[in-house]
Amino acid sequence: MTSYINHPLLKKDAIESRLYQQILAGDVLKKGNTMVVAPTALGKTIVAILVAADRLNKVKNSKVLVLAPSKPLAIQHEDSFKEFLTLPCTSITGAIKTDERVKRWEESRIICATPQTVESDLLNGRYDLSSVSLIVFDECHHGVGSYSYVYLASRYVRESKFNLILGLTASPGSDKSKINEVCKNLYIQNIVVKTEDDTDVKPYFNPVEIDWVRIKMSEELEKIKVHVNKALKIRLKALKNMGIIKTVSVGKTDVLKARGRIQGEIARTTNPDKELFQAISILSAVINLQHAEELIETQGVSTFNKYVARLRKKKTKAAKSLLWDDNFSRAVKLARNAEKNGWEHPKLRELSKILKKELGLGDGQTKLQSTRFTENEDDSSSKIIVFTQYRDTLEMIHQKLEKEGIKSAKFFGQAAKDGEKGLTQKQQKAIIKSFRMGEYDVLLSTSVAEEGIDIPAVDLVILYEPVPSEVRMIQRRGRTGRKRTGRVKVLVTNGTRDEAYFWSSINKEHHMKNQLIDDDVLKELNQSAVQRMENEKKVKVIDKPKKENDFPIVYADSREGNSKVIRHLTEMEMDVKIRSMAVGDYQVSDEVAIERKTAKDFVDSLIDKRLFKQARELSEEFKKPLLILEGDDLYAGMVNANAIRGSIASIALDFGISIIPTRNAQDTAAMIKRIAIREQNGEHTPVQIRTDKKPVSLLEQQLFIIESLPNIGPVNAKALLEHFGSVGNVINASEKDLQEVEGIGKKTAENIRSVIDSKYLYFKKEIKERKLL
Question: Does this chain's domain 19-204 share its CATH topology with 553-680?
Answer without folding.
Answer: yes
